[in-house]
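QA checklist item 7 of 12: single-chain prediction sanity check.
[x] sequence parsed
[x] length recorded as 290
[x] structure emitted
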Amino acid sequence: MTNPETPSFVSTQVTEARRFYLDLNPHPDAPLAVVCGGWEQCAPDYRVSREDFPYCCLEFVADGYGEVTTGGNKHELRRGIAFTYGPGCSHLITTERKRPLSKYFIDFSGHGALALLESCGIAPGAILEAGDPARIESALSRLIDAGSTPSTNQTRIAVLQLESLLLELTDHRIAAPGQTQSYQTYLRCRDYIDAHYFTLNTAEEVATACHVDPAYLARLFARHARESPYRYLLHRKMTHAADLLDSGRRIVREVASDLGMDPFHFSRVFKRTLGVSPSDFANRREVKVK
């Protein structure tokens, strides 16, 4: 259902909202259930103060400014900031009058809800910053669409969208407050690899082109991608190689030559990266098209 009477725990201090309601009384044995969610434009006098909350909740700021206080700690709210709360987690949310908050919220429950948040490093009371706010906003919009579109598998789709959202948020979070510049430098270096991987051979070449120290480049990728820049470069190269082999227009030796690699070294790297040898990968394609 998408338009029941507004529950008491949903704020009415908004000027515009798009909400959905799936199950306000989820079964206690459900592992994970999306209760409700949506987007809301806060009124200038928006103020929500709760000592408790019946569900786990994730909120994400799309625009505007405000503050949230959880566990006695006050945090600034602005675009890209996400925060969580839940049962037993008191919280106070306020907005700036001249630049009211525009934000998303997702309420969910189930005996696996808390464990899911904890596994993503965002247990109730957590504050984090998304390095790619547009990506998270897109994921939230898909979840709202799923919750607002009646279908046979609506509740299951919503749960899968929620899990995907939390994983996206975990993968694209800024590691700690004050590291926005660090994350932007990482994105600049990653984007350079994405655009030039075909001609790059070493992480040092990336560092030189991006005007950063090689050791700093390694730390950036370890912090924000949990892998080395060279490993990321190899994965981009091998994914491209797989596309060439899958097209049927290149044989293994030619693809290795295109990438400037010795065929034997190419085969080892391809298998280490994608799990199968390039010849086996190409043979699978031949079997598939017969």
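[x] summary fact logged: Residues 14-174 form a domain with the Jelly Rolls fold (CATH 2.60.120.280).
[ ] second reviewer sign-off
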